[in-house]
Amino acid sequence: MRRLIAEERPDAVFVLPYSGESLGSKLKKLLYFRLAGFKGPIFGFDGLTTRKILRRSQYQLGLYEHEVYGPVRAISECPTIGIVAEEEIVQRLTIPEDASRWARDVVNESWLEGHLLVAIAPGASFPHKMWPTDRYIAASRELHQEYGCRFVVVGADTDRPLGVRLEESLGVCCLDMTGRTTVTQLAALLSLCRLFVGNDSGPAHMASAVGCPCVTVTSALDFPGIWEPWNSRGRIARTRIDCEFCLSLTCCPLKTNACILAIDTDEVLSICRQVLGVPSPYCIDRKFAAASRPAGQL
Known about the structure:
Layout: H1 2-8, E1 13-14, H2 23-35, E2 42-43, H3 55-60, H4 69-76, H5 97-108, E3 117-121, H6 133-147, E4 150-153, H7 160-170, E5 174-176, H8 183-191, E6 195-199, H9 202-209, E7 214-217, E8 236-237, H10 258-261, H11 265-276
Parallel strand pairs: 1-2, 3-4, 3-6, 4-5, 6-7, 7-8
């Protein structure tokens, strides 16, 4: 590392802090770069630091904020750049043309064409962040009845059982694409959707970045407002419970998954309706299609 730094001779280093980062963590990064031989200015150390044992109190004092702000402030420390205003912070993903063409073909060759399209992402990395699939099914049925919309299920290959269950339950108005897209194809498919409904996961942030409004169903393990998709802030289904803010990333410490299970279907539907607005009478099909999808189609 010392040799590479000596060869590159960078003018500056930017350390991008995260919300709630401790002073010790920042000092470790500073020491790392100094021991690696970098002698120039290092930006990203002027922000607030926190202590783990006082996290709740520090959150109430406003020391925790959206994760976007820490890195932006680190960049703003450089005199050449200066202050970056919030309106200048833009998260927009550019989609390659071949991926866009692929997504349009998927929609045009299926029974989704011509309908209001909603993306569903029922998967998550850990069980305590996963809203029950039967509630996604119930919410989808309500949205179909009210708006006549169609659904595309997205996610990783490990989410395939969830996608299959949704497709079998919703019938011809649902297309399961879990594990069947590349990253750019997923972005292109989400860009064609009018709404995204899913757990706190990568697809939610991707949907937000391509301009698809997100309704994110999130557990209460972390502080609210920290990880919301940037372009869809405020559209979070989240319930406060006594054991919130456990900050346990991999599992529910109580083995109950209580915070994600406390979110009911009506709460999610209410936020979805705020995004979709008043349904147009001509697009409503109140005869829910429960039949299997036609053979030979995607």
